[in-house]
Write a structure and sequence with these properties.
This protein is of the alpha+beta class and 480 residues long. The protein is built from 15 helices and 18 strands.
Length: 480
Amino acid sequence: MDTSRISSFVSGLWDAEIVPQLVEYIRIPNKSPMFDAQWREHGYMDQAVTLMASWARSKLGAFEGASLEVVQLEGRTPLIYIDIPAQGVQGKGTDETVVLYGHLDKQPEMSGWADDLGPWTPVIKGDKLYGRGGADDGYAIFGSLAALLALREQGVPHARCVILIEACEESGSYDLPYYVDHLADRIGHPALVVCLDSGCGNYDQLWLTTSLRGMTGGNLTVQVLEEGVHSGDASGVVPSSFRILRDLLSRLEDPHTGTIVPKELYVDIPAQRVDQARRSAEVLGTAVYDKFPFVEGMQPVTDDLTELVLNRTWRPQLAVTGVGGMPPLDSAGNVLRPRTSVKLSLRVPPTLSGAEAGRFLKELLEKDPPYGAKVTFDLEKDGSGWNAPALSPWLEQAVADASNHYFGAPAAYMGEGGSIPFMGMLGEKFPRAQFLITGVLGPHSNAHGPNEFLHIPTGKRVSMVVADVVARHFQEASKA
């Protein structure tokens, strides 16, 4: 395999076709179902599926026997299923399956975009393509096919490849288990899983994700009155729903340090992951935290870089992502409000059960409500995290070589603070599979927030790495 030809082919395809396709994809406001209850009626998800499926179909003629189907189970978001038979040779190695995964649904708009940018307004500035969803992770289907097309261009053999692109990931992938079960016989038993929905510590080398946190969360509501009343009349007599809510949250989170209080939400961190966190901190330095858009004078929770890496990868952490029951400032009268609600997002360690954490959280917040207030916690989601199995020697070497070939630097390993429910699901179903989890969400790319961007050179290089590793997988399988 000629790595320079891989680089040239992939880069050319990205420039000529993939970037223009992503520009059109960014224009589509196909928000995940949790953020657009009328996604079916709006039709944006179908538009995104059609765009991706049409481009993919135009490329499948390069592969003998390849097929694409948009699978649509009743009442569920669609899924793109691509099946590319083993290419190049017959015999050993052709009976193994590689699964390549991504998603096409998007997070909501979020405020704070720069004046010349917007979630549905694709803008290219230098090496960056701005707009919602390009990096998280609309590029996945294009990058996966670019990798396989690069192998085909050279006649390099590879095992059977299945590409799965779901449309519910940003809502917790609640539709995906149904599709995995529905397609189980067709998917088979993957030997290698490639996921392109993760992050990178910098844009200078390949980053492999070693773990993903789980997540649970929902809406916490405290109600004290049937209706709002004059604050001058009621304050000092009626407890504030906001104060009670703040008190309840202190059961979960230390308000002074941000540390999660209950020990039930922690796990013992494996020694290897602590060591990897230390090495990642050494590589990244202050980029561990200065990639975030801090206001002037703001500091991270600690100056210990290793602890910061572990905080965002192996420790539980809380974010309040929404508030209800509060009027806007310009219409907030002198009223003691009847209720306050907040949306909680609790990240939990990779090896802690998301379902158990959700049940624990509900009990913790609802029991013994102060003053007898009406307290409800409506659990919206719970998903377990994932801790990668040890890499096989061939994969570890393949990753090292590919990073050096295409990035010109050694590969790096680090956990990620986000969740990819598909990984936990596949890890349970296919415990013998090897996993290559990587992505393009690096410093300042700001997935889910304003000014999200895709770093185009990293997208290209990740596609090259996938091509290299898929080819190396076949070489290894052929020896068995």
